[in-house]
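Data availability excerpt. The first of two example chains:
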Amino acid sequence: MVVPEREGLCAVTDAEGGAFSVRPWFTPVAEQLTPVDLKTDVPHSARVYDYFLGGKDNFPADREAAEQTLAIFPDMRTGARENRAFLHRATRKLVGELGLRQFLDIGTGIPTSPNLHEVAQEAAADARIVYADNDPIVLAHARALLTGTRQGRTAYLDADLREPEKILASPELADTLDLGRPFVLSLIAVLHFIPASDDPYGLVRRYTEILPSGSYVALTHATGDFAPEEAERVSAVYQARGITLTPRSRAEVEDFLTGLDLVEPGVVPVHRWHAEKDAGTELADSRVNVYGAIARVP
């Protein structure tokens, strides 16, 4: 049954073309936001990262922490940019070459254009993305995460990576993705903020065990393999400001993907993962210090 469409809405019919409902092209979570305390007097990992990327969604406490980090490791901006570039390349590969159309992105961070849904929907307009993050600063920017193509859908879920049951049982996830079909679990620059005491490996397994065959995991993770002294000092700066940062070795990062099939070239520094026109080969690993990989669920 053909149903007239109104601006900003899409019509959905049942399989027989009978009953239908009208819903927004995107989930209007941002319109329901209530005031939140952004705690601008203390640094926040998402805002510090935003500062490294040259963004404007940060405050003096964030900039002070970032500048202290840059004094120890001047290439922190380089690592942030290369991490972002990995996200873009990995998303294009997952959509364009591997045919994925669904993403669950946990630990979204402040929207920095082009974000995951923009890259995915540029490659395939019908791509669907669910973003999940529990940080108030990200919630405040949810509107930017919820604008996508009319053919696809985007949704935002206020939840923590450490709440797998909440995320996996959420109506936002069920209403946006077909959980019986392959989808991508995106964990970009989030796992190094999960300390050993929170069982990060167990958390990742909880998510990957529900992924249908043919799904993928995309992740990046900070490491101290190439500049161990600097990594230790940077972690101390974060810790002193109440932010746990745990760089992990290549073997430890690989352990997150145990039982999955690593896509070539495996776990490598992000700038060397399918670098465009060999652009990443000129950059020393010690200037980036972030591993990246994607892996397929057999």
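And the second chain:
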Amino acid sequence: MTSDTVAAPPEAQQADHGHNLIDVFRGQPRAVWVTAFAAIIAFMGIGLVDPILNSIAEALKAPPEKLTLLFGVYLGVQVLAMLITGACASRFGPKRTLTVGLILIVLGAGISAFGSNIDQLIALRVLWGLGNALFMATALAFIVGQARGGQQGAILLYEAALGVGLAVGPLLGALLGEWTWRAPFGGTALLMLIGAILCAIALPADGPRSERAAVGILDPLKALKNRTLLINSLGSAFYTAAFFTVIAWSPISMGLRPITAGMIFFGWGILTAVSGVFLAPRIARAVGDRRGVQGAIVVYAAVMAVAAIGVLEHQVWLIGLAVAVSGIPSGVLNTLFTGVAMSATGPETPRSVASAGYNFFRWMGGAVSAVLVAHLATWFGGPAPYWFAAAYCLVAVVLLVVARDRNRRSVPEEAALVGAEEF
């Protein structure tokens, strides 16, 4: 990598070069595959409701500000729950924590299929979000710890699961949503139940508590004292705010039937997966993580501007095109941000704790954005959420550039040349 890349642990540095998907997939333990499968289903829940938002609005007479709460509440709970994921994994073990998280998702999604009003769905998304938080932060740390091929290979697996989940979720929601808006929730609950059973059977048993590092509730926030992790987390928060503008507002702004909206988001998810697994590592090797992240954020801002113009000109096809194309920079950013975050801490900080601290800020950005989008459209007009999303991206770039410049002044040139400077 170039000198602007964050210093990584030795095993990560060894895995950073020459990785391809075949190498990553070859010979992985069964527990890693089971966790990745469950991660796919968990990530499906993010985009599942996108194609059926308009159907839910019609069936339950729900206004836009209530619809976007399906995302805002879901993410808000994840933000708070990130503070307890590390403590839960430490006290009860990663297998128990993962499995309980999956069971909570099963309950949240399954009961949602029988909801009679929008407020019930919002309340059930609280349970769903709690389950997702327990699962996601622990799953990332588990895969990184168990996968063969080093940290970078594990992150590629995780991001592949993210991309596939983001692609399949809207497609499943669209296909089942053509029948009834309730069906996608029931389908996800059934798949998640399969994932929970597989995790309970296939994951290695949790050892004695004495073998695990003690983790407190505030440890994820304490981990953010690491400057690299903090700056990366803040930048990711602004990017995730733009990311969830696409997820929460685009279905409403396009106003399409479930199958059409689902196909657009399916393309978006596929591009997210492909760029995260294939494009991101090549960009990192060519220009470094920092420049790769900044360039991808600038591209994302430009795509958000195109979406805003589509709303302004009443061109639904242009909005749909922008949504699909945004998957390319999204995949790059998801992989590079995650890689830097997981490389930012030393052995004194468990990966599950660093992951929880990073995701605390990351999902906070998404939660605030998902709650705001409908209000921004009311206050400033339909294109406003996308203009704000572009602004979020630019703030992220400025934040990372300022942090880089300050650190360059404080780190000796010799250290910078060997990649010792922070992000």
